[in-house]
Amino acid sequence: MRCSLSRNPYAACATLALIRMGFVIFLALFSRGYRNGSNNLLVASDGVNETATIPGIEKLEGEFPENGGLPVLTLFLLVVAVVLAEDKYTTKYDNIDLDTILTSDRLLKNYVNCLLEKGSCTPDGKELKEILPDALMTECSKCSEKQKKGTEKVVRYLINKKPETWELLKKKYDPTGEYSIKYTDEAHKQGINM
After folding, report:
1. 6 falls in which pLDDT band (50, 70, 90)?
2. For position 2, what pLDDT does the model report?
3. Transmembrane ranges (predicted)?
């Protein structure tokens, strides 16, 4: 795949396709293009008709209004900005006091039970449970720096202070040991002995 400009090559290809399609639409609208009753967009520029096919666009007929290009261009740029924005996990729980949770057996047990589907979840526990498989798969590529540091703190604590809890979580989220192998080198760099 040639359009792997980011960690997610499919997003990069989709972005490039959107940009190309937007460029054709932009040219058509600003040079008074019109539809000819098919999904071909006729572009009139300097008296020469050029045709650009835009797959997936239904038949439309008629002329675009004089100022029709600006709202469409604005909408297109907004879509491109959303697509280009990196996909990140929410940061609304980044200020939770991890030290308080880790040092309270009751709180820690509640979070662990949530993750193991043995108890109810707080909103932040539910969010963690939902994103944990993806974070493991993508090497936490959507994590904020604060989330990465928090992850390191929690993993270090569980391995060193609560190994039985660590083993329960590994059994649930890493039954084949794939992630343990994948992250061993990084853990050693951080001073964590897995």
Report:
1. very low
2. 45
3. 12-31, 68-85
Task: Answer yes or no: are the C-beta atoms of 191 and 159 closer than 8 Å.
Answer: no
d(C-alpha 42, C-alpha 31), whole Å: 10
Q: And the tokens for 194?
A: 């897995």
Contact 139, 101 (CB under 8 A): no
pLDDT higher than threshold 80 for residue 145 = yes
Read out DSSP for 16-71? Answer: HHHHHHHHHHHHHHHTT-EEESSSEEEEEETTEEEEEE-TTPPP-EEEPPTTTHHH
Type of residue numbered 104: S
The CA-based diameter of the chain, rounded to the nearest angstrom, is: 77
- Tokens 């989709």 — which residue? 14
Q: Specify the range with the lowest mean pLDDT, choosing from 121-135, 152-166, 171-185.
A: 171-185
Q: Which residue has the higher pLDDT, 168 or 20?
A: 168
For residues 107 and 27, give the distance between their C-alpha atoms in angstroms, rounded to a whole number: 59
pTM above 0.90, yes or no: no
Which positions ≥6 away from 121 have C-beta within 8 Å?
Answer: 114, 129
In order of 119, 136, 138, the CA distances from 175 in angstroms are 21, 13, 17
